[in-house]
Amino acid sequence: MDRREALKFLGTALSLPVLANLSGEEIFSFGREMHARLPEAGEGLYVFKTLNPHQNQTVTVITDLILPATDTPGAVAARVNEFIDLMLAEWFKAEERDSFQQGLAELDRQSRSSYGKHFINCSHDQQVELLKSQEEEAIATAKAKEGEQEMSWGRVSPPRDHFFHAIKWLTLLGYYTSEIGMLEELGWEMIPGSYSGCSHT
């Protein structure tokens, strides 16, 4: 995903109604502000506000599968799990947080049904299959609502209320607005004094 594609995605595939009227650039600035509120990196320095330890492990594995480390660092190095927890705590309504956490519980239920263990204890291939199933479910639901359009991650977004769409969008937002995602993946040049934060709070 290049800079233009990232901004286009962030500006159109929205999970939060409060951000629905913002442009890609404004959402990017919003994401940068959220990252600035995280403490310096280090184990135990961030105090989780919404996710319990098991949920955090699950979110960390999912984000790593969506954006793994390749020749550039991935979602784990960008601390996307902490970003998601902060978003859940400060920007999601109570019912949206509940829905997200129910989505995590449902993923574990499907994992136990298919493989007899929690998602985080499955093999890599099993985890990929479970997420593919989630993606297919999200796309099928979107097709039922929006008609038979060609749908993929970069084209027509799955419905906003589906867990898979929510965690995918949060993962991409958290990654591409992190310093790692900006500098090492998108190749943005940080010019001192040029950043302006989002004023839509």
Structure explained in plain terms:
It is globular and about 40 Å long. The protein has eight helices and no strands. Residues 148-159 and 190-201 have low confidence and may be disordered. The protein has one domain (3-185). It is mostly helical. 32% of the residues are buried. The protein has helices at 3-12, 24-36, 53-66, 80-90, 94-115, 124-146, 163-176, 179-185. Helix 1 packs across helix 2 (24-36).
Q: Say how many strands there are.
A: 0
Structural class: mainly alpha
**How many DSSP helices?**
8
Radius of gyration: 17 Å
Q: In one word, what is the shape?
A: globular
Question: What are the SSEs and their pairings?
Answer:
Elements: H1 3-12, H2 24-36, H3 53-66, H4 80-90, H5 94-115, H6 124-146, H7 163-176, H8 179-185
